[in-house]
Amino acid sequence: MKVLCFGSLNVDYTYEVDHFVRKGETLSSDSLQVFSGGKGLNQSIALAKAGVETYHAGAVGEDGRFLLAQLQEAGVNTDYVAVLEDVRTGNAIIQNDREGDNCILLYGGANQAITPAQADEVLGHFQEGDFLVLQNEINELAYIMEQAHRQGMRIALNPSPMDGKIMGLPLGYVDYFLLNEGEAGQLLGQDAVKPAQGEGGQQPGRRMGKAVDGERLVKALSGKFPNAVILLTLGKEGSVCMGSQGFLRQDSYPVTAVDTTAAGDTFTGFFLGGILQGYPLQEAMDRASKASAIAVTRKGAAPSIPSIQEVERFPG
Length: 316
Ligand code: RIB
What we know:
Number of strands: 13
Order of helices and strands: EEEHEHEEEHEHEEHHEEEHHH
Strand content: 15-25%
Strand order of the largest sheet: 5-4-1-8-9-10-11-12-13
Distance between the termini: 32 Å
Structural class: alpha/beta
Number of helices: 9
Bound molecules: alpha-D-ribofuranose
Largest sheet: 9 strands, mixed
């Protein structure tokens, strides 16, 4: 069984700021660092570090060759990443504030230049029972899902960043949804539900409210997609899951966050990696929780993703 992550590769320009820049404001940043990122690349690296054979497909421009080297260094096969002329690599402008929270502005670049021909060529190397991992930072998602489903691949979808295109996908083909509260609410048609990222969660009353919300959301999604495993991340409140073993809850590990970028991607990669290695859902959630706790204590996206040895030693 092989895992194909068909997803974005970004150059992340990360600015340390006192607060997120406001409308009409000009704000000086404290520092600029350039990291490898993109939800696809991050999840591929997390999958490989979790211990599964991982193939990445996607596209970069000539300026993004170093991203392939980063993937390879983590053990990811990059044979199916196209290097395009005349298109620049996708990038992200990331503001990272004093609390370690972030906000992200994306430029799709080569990530939005995927063609059905590339999808056909890549998927031709995979077969029934192989696993496809997707996010929402490339184009042609619906086509890729249709073809993968036709050839019997299992599909995991992290519908992030959430937008209107997600509702037009053949979501009935998805075997695993990995999402946050805001994304879950939007899939259910409840736009008012806010995402967990960046929220306090310190007060006991608030904690209970979010936990109950998470349980309600994950159960509602499971009703809508009864054949899928639904994994909902709740930030500091941990995660909840509805799958073959019913409702499961996993606490997060308390750490001091310096940068939450790629925490969700780390969780996704280690959770799926655990499942694919045969761990029970609860144990896969625990390993993913540990991995993302380590990731938020480090700066950057891909560079913050821990090794399996670090995860197994944590909290040490
Ligand atoms: O999930 C974090 C990622 O989102 C960053 O690496 C950035 O590139 C954006 O894709």
